[in-house]
Specification:
Blueprint: H1 2-31, H2 38-68, H3 73-76, E1 80-86, H4 90-102, E2 107-113, E3 118-124, H5 138-147, E4 153-162, E5 168-176, H6 191-257, H7 259-276, E6 285-286, H8 287-305, E7 309-314, E8 323-324, H9 328-341, E9 348-357, E10 360-367, H10 381-394, E11 399-404, E12 410-417, H11 428-433
Parallel strand pairs: 7-9
Antiparallel strand pairs: 1-5, 2-3, 3-4, 4-5, 6-8, 9-10, 10-12, 11-12
Helix pairs in contact: 1-2, 2-5, 4-6, 6-7, 6-10, 7-8, 8-9
Amino acid sequence: MIASIIHLGRLLLAWLGCYLFLCILLNETVFHPLERDPGGWFAVGALLLGTWVASGVFSHIRRVRLVAGVVNGGTLSNRQRRQIEIPFEAGEAFDLIDAAIRELPGIEIVDSARDSLQVRAKVARIDPYGGHGRNQGEGQVASWALDRFGTHRNQILATVTPNGDDAGSVTLICEPEPAAWTDLFLVDHGTNLENAEAVVRAVTRRVAERRRGEAAQVRQTATEKELTVAKLNLLHAQVEPHFLYNTLASAQVLTRTDPARADEMLGNLIQYLRHSLPRTEDAPSTIGEELERARAYLDILKIRMGPRLQLQIDVPEPLRGVLFPTMMLQTLVENAIKHGLEPKPGGGTVWILARQVDSAVAVTVADDGRGFTAEGGGTGVGLRNVRERLRLAYGNAASFSIVANFPNGVAATITVPNAVNGTTTLSGAVKAAGAYHD
């Protein structure tokens, strides 16, 4: 209430002051020649002027109350300023504010400069009490008359200030086109208040949409990861018990015929199981640890297959500390045995090689078994899981290839970044990959 009275009093004083000044200037040319008392004319003119100004100000106050819900010095002002914090880097914040301003109703001119992070715009000023015909009320007539001295456009200036690498601060100014001194005589009927609130709402809505999109993407990624984990766990549950039962059955037979070999087989089985326990730490495995697991597995099979299985390992000692996803080497070794050497009558050899290639390490498992034959192929689930896990763990920084080995067999190669003891940062997916088996 006090703010409304002050606002009305300020405008009345400004207009009546101008009226008094004009009356003084015109006194000699208008009132004196007519030889009439100018006091009466002055009082009548002042009353009419005060009524006219009060009608326009009253309409302005009522509209501000409708728009803002509260009337105070800030909402009654013709010039509105807002400070908007946007949780995106300055370029993205500029795009948001630029799009929000361009979608304002009545927008006429938009001049945006991305390098200077500024947007200037001209907006047609609406006439909230506009209308045509005989039924215009007295307040509408007064507002129309007051507006004739003003302007038909408002203007907007938005400046984005970088606030760190991941945030931008927007200074938004909405004001009439004329200079600030005209605010002593004119009102904007809350149009600049509406523009400022509209831009703030548009930016808030766009930020919320962006956050919802990011949250949906995170949920989708988490769902895909859970599905991958479930598939890998299912594969592990199908393969490992089969190998375990066969090994124990073979050891049971050897305890009666060859106790020494049975003891060797059980020792290799213990070594294999020790490296196959679920990992409790976040870091992935290493080439050396995976090689020990694969070696224990192959030593067990050498006892079962006898001279039909030969093994050659060439992994330089410096490369054994390179980080490597858990159970991937084991998957390649199992495929070489199951689909390459076991079906071959004379058996064959498995090679495990590791080489430094620029800033990456290539690990190859090769065999001279049956190769790519219709009878020797499996379902491909294990190799698809290898590709998927590499994609989740390293993105484009890792690769997987499988080719024919000369003269017989298959060679499968996994290439990963050369990261030793965590010196290269891996994605969160590779950490998760170390917590389960294929």
